[in-house]
UniProtKB/TrEMBL annotation, chain A:
Protein name: Alkaline phosphatase
Source organism of this protein record: Gallaecimonas pentaromativorans
Cofactor: Mg(2+); Zn(2+)
UniProt: Zn(2+) binding residues: 86, 360, 364, 400-401, 493
Superkingdom of the organism of origin: Bacteria
CDD domains xref list: ALP
Compartment(s): Cell membrane
From TrEMBL, chain B:
Highest taxon in the source lineage: Bacteria
Keyword list, A-Z: Signal
Protein name, entry field: Uncharacterized protein
Residues in the signal sequence: 1-18
Amino acid sequence: MEMKKLALVMATIAALGLAGCNDGDDGVAGTPGADGANGNNGTDGRDFTAVNQWYLAGQSTVAKAAESTISDPAGKAKNVILFVGDGMGVSTLTAARIFEGQQQGKSGEENRLSFETFPYSGLVKTYSSNQQTPDSAPTMSAIVTGAKTKDGMLSITDDAVRGDCASGQGHEMVSALALAEMAGMSTGVVSTARLTHATPAATYAHSVERNWEADSNMPAAAITAGCTDIASQLIDFPYGDGIEVALGGGRTYFMPNTENDPEYGSAGRRNDGRDLTSEWTSKHAGSSYVWNLDQFMSVDLATTKHLLGLFENSHMQYEADRSDDSAGEPSLAQMTSRALDMLKQNDKGYFLMVEGGRIDHAHHAGNAARALEDTVALSEAVRVAMEKAGPDTLILVTADHSHVFTIAGYPVRGNPILGLVRSVDENGEAAKTLSVDANGMPYTTLGYANGPGFGFGSSPVNMASARPDLNLYDVTDVDYRQEATVPLGSETHAGEDVAVYAMGPGAQLVTGSVEQNMLFHVMNYAADLEARAEANQP
Amino acid sequence: MFYKALMLLALGSLSAHGASVCPATAPAGAWGLEYQVSASQSGAEPRQVQLLRRGAQTALYSPEHQMAEWWHFEDPKRPGFSRVFDQQQRRIDYYMGDLRALGVQAQQEEVESFAARHLLGQLTKQGSSPCEHAERYQGEINGVSYDLLWSPVLAAPLAIVTRKGEVERRWQADKLLGKDAVNARFATWQRYRETDFADIGDMENDPFLAKMINQGFIEHREHAVYNDQGQPLATGHSH
Ligand SMILES: [Zn+2]
């Protein structure tokens, strides 16, 4: 069974021409550029380095980079941690960095999110095999399987047709997580979204339709044709000894419709009568299922070998609302921390995927404050990993796609990132009045190219023909929705590149501008996943 | 600006119509009230709105639009909300963070009382009522005159007549719905295909949701006594 699946990924990768050809995607470095870091003074007698801290800091960074000539051999990484901020585009990172800095009482721009201190970074092209601007299904599939696919499909090659069960059969692509299980490593999936949502699902499930999260979401024909829902694939995961840690939301997708949710009383979403949470505990010896913070924190990690935590009936709370959850929810950092404590116990290493899943949702709602708070929460989770993971661990931080989120105007340094634009005067000092548009109206630094638009109200589309007078609103309120140029009920994803940051063995491969599916190959090279999987077969 | 200003209208006396529904006790389990909503000068036919109650659940249903707004107040500080579309047999579920991001702050008693509860303390209770089991309140708030017939056993209004200048509007309960009808409707809605509001942005290939994305979530708030900010129209409160 396992070997057959393994053979499949090899065949798939070979068929797609993604292995063994020298098309520039193989990580071979180009001709080095001239050394521009010697810091020599100019020839006009001025010492540029004398007083300017900006100059000195930049010079020192370049000098350090020039000293590094790392070329880690394949397989040097024992462990891999992959962080994905769903919808965490570059503008989101910039705004979140300033937001976090300002929360700490600083001006903000100089702040760095935890992963912005990583030694390597690059840009990632996110288009899917059939769309310029993608959704999370093909992008995460690319990241964890090494091949791009069509929108809406999870870890199935793009020969398949979305929603057509039969077209996907035999076209499953094996993920990095599956390879890690085959290699005898421990594995984990952590998300603030539903565990059955596209990003986490791509690591363990195959589906021609990302919305087939429970059997009740599937057409009868697909079930008859032999396709299975995503939640059941997490429990029935066939590789190795199964996933060790699965933490996130989506509880009711694992519960039969004859049972009611313990927190909300709503019915389970399974028509097949399966209670996947009890199947989890009966399938794995030494396993636990938890659904609230107290239960989660009291799990004995030394004796628990398989842990399933489902903390909401659907997505977990936004970080901004988490403290108000009635049953109590762990933060992304807490989930990451305890997941690592469990996974680290395996001498053969581990693969962990952590998703900040709700950045995307807040952006879709046109609500920048929640998107930024969830981005900072992801940064905190990465900080935990930086502390807990040893030097034998490759850590990648990236996003699946961006959003049409903008940082605009010429606000003075330190201007509240959620606030109205206040520029500088002719002397470069903070202006006494707000910047205004052609109508004399102020505007926020943050905005969206499309979406629900301005306001607090429940009617999401700004139908008014003129811009509102934002002087009358608290635009820094967590519930404020930024203005949007094109009125849509939901803001859309964006098509530009996202960033990727890397530290640990193999991190040097992350540089330049790459295709998204290349990230799998970085992880595979760094941890030698395929070779370890093959070597571990009986 | 979002304010469709208080479209609160005027009308004759309550008593002519006030007693068509007037229960002595609240039906056990579930019940509903069907209101005729009419405006004095619109020339339009009266429209129906139903208030459906079962335990901590309350729905406002518009038979005309075949749409409902369905609230769950099992935990009053963290209400659940669904928007129901009968024609398409679809439901959009909103969770706490969604409601907050949308700035919706509905109060349980206001939803359950058809947005009339807050009026009781501001109006004057009258000595006589057109209905034995109901209390009558009258008064003026912010230039709007009110005539309210309140059922203490249902904790809901049986009639509200508002008048401002020439404009008059009437909400008149004319039918009490039994528990079987209400339970059946809730059960039907429960079976509809549901989508989390948070997921809509990722589902533009769904024709029903794409329509919503392109048009926005068109509100039909006039069918209820709420404005499009989710606030009871009668309070006149706004950001
Ligand atoms: Zn999205």
